[in-house]
What we know:
2 domains
Amino acid sequence: xxxxxxxxxxxxxxxxxxxxxxxxxxxxxxxxxxxxxxxxxxxxxxxxxxxxxxxxxxxxxxxxxxxxxxxxxxxxxxxxxxxxxxxxxxxxxxxxxxxxxxxxxxxx
Length: 108
């Protein structure tokens, strides 16, 4: 999903105070706006727009320290062995939320 579409959805919701269904109508009426990723219906839906509005990353929050990689374990699939990464909850260590500064891009 492009940043421009996310900004537009939040602008309609916060500044214009549109309902989720009105946002869905506008997204589907504008042919310049691409469909959401993995769209099964070929259109924007109430569930997709609600998920965008609930997503903490789209609101500028990043969660850290929640899981950690604990290595590999062999896994067999149809007679073939495949390495698989395992992760587990990291509740005992420090974890939390961090605010992502707006207007800046991460340095590569």
